[in-house]
Each structure stands twice: as structure tokens, then as C-alpha cells.
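Thread: "does anyone have the structure for this chain?"

Original post by V.I.:
We have the sequence but no experimental structure in hand. Need at least a predicted one for the grant figures.
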Amino acid sequence: MIHISILIPKAAILGSLEGSRQLFTQVNQFCKMRGMPPLFKVQLVGLDQETKVAGGLYTVNADVLLKDVKKTNLIIIPAIDGDLQQAIDVNSDFLPWITKQYKNGAEVASLCLGAFLLASTGLLNGKKCATHWVAANEFKKMFPEVELITEKIITEEHGIYSSGGAFSYLNLILHLIDKYAGHDMAVLCAKVFAIEIERENQASFIIFQGQKEHDDEHVRKAQEYIERNYQDKTTVDSLAGMFAIGRRSFERRFKRATDNTVAEYIQRVKVEAAKKELEMSRKTVNEVMYEVGYSDIKAFRTTFKKITGLSPLEYRHKYNKDAMVMA
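Reply from O.Q.:
Generated one for you, C-alpha cells below.
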């Protein structure tokens, strides 16, 4: 029997904790219906017998305390909420246990912002990881040794898994069910719980906000200029000239401060403006393209799809209710 330990962190988001438990225990129900023994031993593992979660609104009772779990096969780290550094600090007793279990052969999966707890163990250093795109800048700042992949729903590397934002944790749990219980069981769970099993990318959900939590005032002013004048053709030389900074020095400073090249930042701002038009208006793709400062439809479509994972037309049909009616 595969032993699954679902941790109960303080400041946990209840949905990812209970949703994981439901999916894994449902597999056992399906096994019972087929005349098979249960596949999983699912336990909620806490530092204390009772843990307040969701800002204190709910109390979760542990099946077993952390100190009593000597060996497990799969660790699930649910999403956490609130002040993330504080959440890491109050859950620090989990970290050496997670590391020890991983070194003894257990696999580990973080759900959404649970990646902050997983990264705090050091096990993610030099590896890929996904988390909620809202916290991407904070994650990069806190864990520069980890390769954050913001567009992915799931990452998997050397027995360590992570999922992207919010309810995309369901896709990771299905992925784990597929691995441990077989594809037919994962498909059955997807159908019963009405989960889109084929989702791999969360890029279309990302709202580009720019990284402004830095101390370079010239770069911040350049960012603000780009965002105010996204319809115009802005160049690196023109921006550098505004602040009397050499081009190469300006590019290095911009990349260091924002984690984007100037060209990437301009593209992302233009695409974010285009997304809003496609979501809210009845304008054609060509009209939107011109409004955000593109003149080459092929270049616009290529850049848009690279950033969002969808073509402009696919994006409009996905998010514009008028487009849905017209379709």
C-alpha cells in the first residue's frame, strides 16, 4: 500500500488540502467497487492534533502527528496563504522532516504556494518549479537558486513535483494518480470530479504586473514610461537616452531589476493591453494589433501566443462573452 502524507501547514488553504484528500481516497473507493484492495493509505499529518487553517476559519484534525511518521512514500504540501515568510517560519518544523523523507526515497509534491515551503527545504535548488503566477516575483526574490517556470501547470524532476496557481493543483493530483494507480484511474477521477485532464499551461491566466520591487529609480521610471506609451515604438536607445545612461549599462540594469530584457518588457506590456481589449471589446484582432503598436500581424500573433499560449482569436473566444455568443 502506498502511504500518502498530506501535510497540514499552519496558514494552509483548505481547498488544496481537502481536495487532495478527496481525490486520493476516491481512488480507494473505485478500487473497492472493482473488488480490489485499497491502493493508498491517506493520512493528514500535522504538527499538532488540531491546526487552524484559512485564516482561522476552519480547524483540521490530524490523523497522525509528524513526529510519529517514520516513513512515507508521497508527501503532499498544500498551498499556504497570507505573509509567506511568516508561513514558512511557523511551519519550519516540517522542513527537516520533508528533507529526510525525500532522502529516504519519498516523493514530494507542492501545490500552488506550497512551493514556498518546498523551496525552503533547499530540495528545489537547481531544479524547476511552478507556483501561482501572482507570487512569481516574490518567489524569485526569496529563492534565486530555483528555476521558476511560471507558465507550466506541472513540473516534475527527480521525484519532486509542483503545480501552478490555485485549482491547477487538481491536475497535479491527477498526474500522481496516473503514475501510482494507472491512466484509467486518473481518467475516471477526472470524469467524476469534472477536471480538465489535458491542461498543461497556465500562461493564459497570467496578468503581467511587472517587477517594481527594486531600488533602481531610473529603471522604474522607464517601466512607467513603457506602460503609459505602449502604443508607441519605444527603443532601448530612446529609453537609455532619457536618463543619460549608456545602452549596455541600461540593459544590464533593467534585466537585473525586472528579470526581463527591455524588449521582453515592452512585448509583455503590449500583449497585456491587447488581452484587455480582446476580453472586453468587439474589435477585430487587426484593430487590437494596431492599437497596441504592432503593424505586422504575423509578428503580433507569434508574440501573443508565445506569452499567453493561445492565439489572439483563441484568447478572445476563451474570455470574451460577446465572442462566445457570436461563435
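V.I.: this helps a lot. Residues 51 and 60 are 5 Å apart (CA to CA).
O.Q.: and The chain has two domains: 2-204, 217-326.
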